[in-house]
Amino acid sequence: MRLSLLGVNHRTAPVEIRERFAIPESRLAEATERLAHFPGVDEGMIVSTCNRVELLVSSVNGRTDLRRFLCDYFKTDVSPYEQHLYEFQEREAVRHLFRVAASLDSMIVGEPQILGQVKEAFAVARGVGAVRSNLNAVVTKAFAVAKRVRHETQVGSSSVSVASVAVELAKKIFGSLEGKHVFLVGAGKMSELAARHLLAHGAGSIFVANRTHDRAVEMARRFEGEAIRFDQLYETADRADIVISSTGAPHAIFRREHGLQFLQRRKNRPMFFIDIAVPRDVDPEMNKVDGIFVYDIDDLQSVVASHLTDRKGEAEHAERIIETEVDKCLARFSEQEIVPTIVSLQEQIETIRQAEIDRARGRLGAMTPEQELAVEGLTKAIVNKILHTPITTLKSAARESESTTLEETIRRLFNLKSDTHKKDPPE
Asked: How many domains does the chain have?
């Protein structure tokens, strides 16, 4: 098994770059299926959130060109974005996956949403048949590692998320949210989190608009708000002081001309837009309109800094857990990969043993049951002693870089078939 991971995230690229590679939830299954059928890919999954897009694949016969997949899927040349991409192989890919699942690579260290997002990506991949034995094992392990980090550290002790930080920013802008009218554009999980935080901090009323109106109605009912039909968005958005937008639309839904219209109807009372969507829902040009204040996902970084400082010690503890679990994971996978060779060696020697016993019977004639048991015991003991050293050496070497060379040497010495160990273990 060879693991590869290619991605772009909030650390390596601004939102205007990340949105070029964002894959909306509605297209994730189709994109994952295409990745699984891309040349060289045996298994694959895609994590696409507001802060990252990552391709994780397993390949039995060598590495695959994941940059070419991005070129083909997005129909664009990715070379201009090379400085923003990162690629990990084997150990580094496993470590990165574990850190992502444990929320150590998040904009807000310890935020709980990323684990759910990775689980959703995993479920999508399983649903289209893109995940089988290898990725299933490593991703399932990542979930277990994330759980251990949560239980053994305080890295996620306070309920912090992009949504809560967005609300914190709104409080800094307005001083108080008491009596402020809020418009949620998009009825997804992020919007729901924002609504909970806003109400907890005194927001007066909530309007909800979503392309699927039933979802808007459902969310509005939960928060005693008002559902607005999406086609009435521009006619009603000026009723809000704060607009939090997270729709997953492929292009901006709020543009400069909309901002001018809103301010005119509001008699120039300011409006505050928090755009937590990738691709962005609010055109950056809106920020040039006097009285309109726009903050996107990257603007939240200044608020995040204080949370990172508070959690530094716990994050270091979590990093040590990650390193330990990476070692265990790779050792287990290495041992699993060496198992077919060990089984093949044992079968080969057992075949020789049985053949020699049959040949001896022809010369010795009929043996009593006691003699049969004695011969069986003697020959098995000899075989076990002969196999002990090569098997224990193979198991020890499985954790080291020379394991492949030693495995091939054993196969050549004992004339073992070279293709049996290339197959995936049964699920």
From this structure: 3
